[in-house]
Amino acid sequence: MKIGIVSTGVYIPQHFQTAAEISAASGIPQEIIETKMGFSRKPLPGPEDHTCQMGIWAAQKALEKGNVDPKDIDLVIYIGEEHKEYPLWTAGIKLQEAVGAVNAWAFDVQQRCGTMVMALKIAKDMMTADPDVNTVLLAGGYRNSDFIDYTNPRTRFMYNLAAGGGAVILKKGHEQNELLASHIITDGSFSEDVAVVAGGTKNPITAEAIENRLNYLDVMDPEGMKQRLEQKSMQNFTRVIERALEKSGYGNEDLDYLAILHMKRSAHDYVLKHFGLTDDQTYYLSEYGHIGQIDQILSLELGLESGRIQPGHIVGLVSAGIGYAWDSCIIRWG
């Protein structure tokens, strides 16, 4: 039984922060931000752009585009960030109610910026195993830009963090845009390298913690992480894509389009070169920055709008999340 993508939805806030503004805040030359870091601007959340709410708006777009009745949805999976409207709150149930999926049940999943690609595998596996799960909505939002301290040089590789929402609707028996195989790698040796230090059970929020800016993202061992990550990161990026292609019955040469997260230009180009892809076979998100787990859906939509994705194309989605996780899945488009 084929499982296909019926539709997608993306929500982008209207306010953007420019490379010039980030340069002024961080002291990094604007040219470096635009060329090496690879973005000229990025969306930031407005007053009403809450995390789950951005997922709701993206889900409503997907429902409208796919002409899907919310009452036909069997399962809602929230793929947005844990940083959301309230702590200790199941956002998927709110999202279910907001879109009118009254016959569904819901839960949240999380793997940082790998969440959407991971959740596509979870959804497909559940749909394959459970005869009662035929239509699934995956949706959520992201605004981890809230945790960036531009005066902290240890986190400069995350200065591209932005905000937005994304959604995907999957349907069993849908003949178009077939979701094929996935592959995921996680490496726990990086699990405590990057975190918001204060706010959990180890380091509760206190006035002193806020004064010391421990309520922002930080890198505990930047040099050690860099050395260890350089040995594995690109290898795992290419590995998950290759294995997902292999499991889907394809080789590297069959890949027509790669929906890849936003990362520095040199790393992006390395992955393209490895698979023999050109700039016209992907979409570099230089005007969006990194919207976490929303990047792949945004790239998919931009690829379709620009004509870079055509019927019959083999499309790869690839993500990475701090912790560290690398995820890929393959879609036969059309």
Q: State mean pLDDT (0 to 100 scale).
A: 97
End-to-end gap: 16 Å
Please compute the radius of gyration using only Cα atoms.
19 Å
CATH architecture of the largest domain: 3-Layer(aba) Sandwich
Q: How much strand content do the residues show?
A: 15-25%
| Structural classification | alpha/beta
Order of helices and strands: EEHHEHEHEHEEEEHEHEHHEE
Low-pLDDT segments: none
Largest sheet: 5 strands, mixed
Helix proportion of residues, in percent?
25-40%
- CATH overall fold name of the largest domain: Peroxisomal Thiolase, Chain A, domain 1
How are the strands of the biggest sheet laid out side by side? 1-7-6-4-5
Number of strands: 13
| Number of spatially distinct domains | 2
Based on Cα principal axes, name the global outline: globular
**CATH class placement of the largest domain:** Alpha Beta
Domain Beta-ketoacyl-[acyl-carrier-protein] synthase III N-terminal: 107-188
Domain Beta-ketoacyl-[acyl-carrier-protein] synthase III C-terminal: 245-333
Keywords: Acyltransferase, Transferase
GO molecular function: 3-oxoacyl-[acyl-carrier-protein] synthase activity
